[in-house]
Amino acid sequence: MSHIAERPxxxxxxxxxxxxxxxxxxxxxxxxxxxxxxxxxxxRHRLETFEAQEARPLRGALRHKSHLLxxxxxxxxxxxxxxxAVEDLLGPNLLCWSSSFFIKEAQDxxxxxxxxxxxxxGLSEPEIITAWVAFSPSTIASxxxxxxxxxxxxxxxxxxxxxxxxxxxxxxEIAVEVDQAKAVAMPLEPGQMSLHHVRIFHGSExxxxxxxxxxxxxxxxxxHIRQVIGPKDGAVLVRGVDNFHNFEPEPAPxxxxxxxxxxxxxxxxxxxxxxxxxxxxxxxxxxVVRR
Length: 291
Known about the structure:
The protein is of the alpha+beta class. 22% of the residues lie in helices and 22% in strands. The chain has 5 helices and 13 strands. The chain has helices at residues 17-26, 37-54, 71-77, 80-90, 259-276; strands spanning 28-33, 94-104, 112-115, 129-134, 145-147, 158-160, 172-174, 184-185, 192-197, 202-204, 213-222, 234-239, 248-249. The strands form 3 sheets. The protein has a 7-stranded mixed sheet with strand order 1-9-4-11-2-12-13. The longest helix is centred in the N-terminal third of the chain and has 18 residues, at 37-54.
């Protein structure tokens, strides 16, 4: 059972009926076009220009909910090609709940352990989709995401490792055996995206290539979803109407890392840190400097 509500799609905006059926069965879709390789290169250039100004790679809290800091990422979470595909699966009223950069440097030993996204998110229902947008080539060599098809049925137990080479917030990994012989890699070219269900088993290996692997993961939910642990969270209405008001509205950045944007981002990131790190000593994404 997919735990994605069966919504009629008589006039899908992006996906074919076969793609919708495949997503419900398997828990993922790829590759899907979002923009040209040239447009993706522009986004990468904007990211790396900022990193050059800071004289270090983007890290810590700046990698999380980055669309509240950078206007060009705010535009990306509203991209119609992304939203059309997500709407075909979740319906017309959508929130962007979160976003995160997953960056592996060239010849980088960092990895993502096998996990389910839903483990610590504290959301009321598993009607949640991640759109993973490639800014650079995501290849087998560079550590493309892998999934276990059809593994998105139930939540399973996880253990926290806090492995310094693990890109996840708590180094969480599935505490049951994962049949890696069934794993499917999802390579992407710059400008393409994959979609995956919040409960699918997925992970990725280190980057053994000579280029960075840069992905921007955007988490979308229908407006009826609620936060069931921690403080009232925030989100951005990206399509349709919100008749539930379960999340505090989060503002668009008025300029790149402006004082107002930094303040709004800190409040939003700290709210989510309180949820994602519930029961631990960590209280802020600022403490997770290695990511």
